[in-house]
Amino acid sequence: MKACVLGLGEIGLPTALYIKKKRFETWGYDIKEAAVVRAKKNGISATTNWDEIPPADIYVVTVSTLLKGGFADLTPVFNVCEKIANKRKPSSLISIESTVIPGTCRKIYEKIFKKKAYLIHIPHRYWAGDPENYGVKQLRVIGGINVESLEKGQDIFEKQLKIPLFAVSPIEIAEMSKITENAYRYVQIAFAEELKQMCHELGLSFEDVRKACNTKWNIEILEAREGIGGHCLPKDIRYLASLTPHNVLLRSAIIVDHKYRQWLKKKIK
Questions:
Q1: Per-residue confidence (pLDDT) for residue 221, from 0 to 100
Q2: Contact call for residues 27 and 51 (beta carbons, < 8 A)
Q3: CA-to-CA distance for 55 and 36, rounded, in angstroms?
Q4: Which of 187, 162, 204 has its CA nearest to residue 238?
Q5: How buried is 238 (Cβ within 10 angstroms: 0-12 exposed, 13-18 middle, 19+ buried)?
Q6: Gyration radius of the chain's alpha carbons
Q7: Given this model, what pLDDT does residue 269 score?
Q8: Are 50 and 29 in contact (CB under 8 A)?
């Protein structure tokens, strides 16, 4: 079987390498020459020229999604799905693993694939900090645009790629789960940041308070470091907050992190 991974960054390259190890003929596509060069050095047949990619049995979309004015900018996902639509086989499976908001996969299915495609969403949970335990192969959520797509996705990912899956329906549940996971983590860290500031004002050791609280079986206060960085958490909490007006806690967490960063700067001075 032929597989094509679109987007060869932090998630896409490990995904392509994993699929290749499972003896799929694996191709990679990226618009960035540096990403293609890196993939080639790791043994992946990669290119920036879409015309060089042969029709595949499975397309895995791992391009980065963006934030524009506080709202999701999913242009990269739509762009690569347009490319797939013009090349895929009728039997091809399209797996969108990029982070999206609820309704995205259905819109792509209807507008780009004209309701004629096997389409699934398996949001990645890859953590570069520990790829051994939290790499491509770990329990992941899968949603299908229809029953046939879900079954095909389970066959390829669970039986052939040996990736454990938790199936949900409708596909919007899978879309919602990813941004919820990251937003929840963001809120947890923001709580720790605010608690650290409170402890400082009261002349108490934040670490001692945290450790004391964490002796209780259902409490796990996280560390408070240099602010909530990276690409995913700051973006995904804003994705979730943009969906409905019920976002007071999410918006507050964003404000807490901003104020915490300012506090750290003043403290260092």
A1: 98
A2: no
A3: 19
A4: 187
A5: buried
A6: 21
A7: 61
A8: yes
Ranges of the chain with pLDDT below 70? 269
The structure tokens listed for 53 are 């990619």
**Which residue from 77, 124, 117 is spatially nearest to 97, judged by alpha carbons?**
124
Burial class for 47, CB neighbours closer than 10 Å (0-12, 13-18, 19+): middle
Cα(6)–Cα(50) distance, integer angstroms: 10
Q: State the Cα–Cα distance between residues 11 and 33, nearest whole angstrom.
A: 17
Delineate the domains of the chain, giving CATH numbers in brackets. 2-169 (3.40.50.720), 177-268 (1.10.1040.10)
Residue 171 CA, chain-centre distance (Å), reads: 15
How high is the mean pLDDT of the chain? 96
Length of the chain: 269
Name 15's Cβ contacts closer than 8 Å, sequence gap at least 6: 5, 60, 62, 97, 124, 126, 136
Burial 90-107 (b: 16+ CB within 10 A, else e): eebbbbbbbbbbbebbbe
Q: Which residue has the tokens 């709580």?
A: 191
Phi, psi of 33 (to 5 degrees): -60, -40
Coil, strand or helix at 207: helix
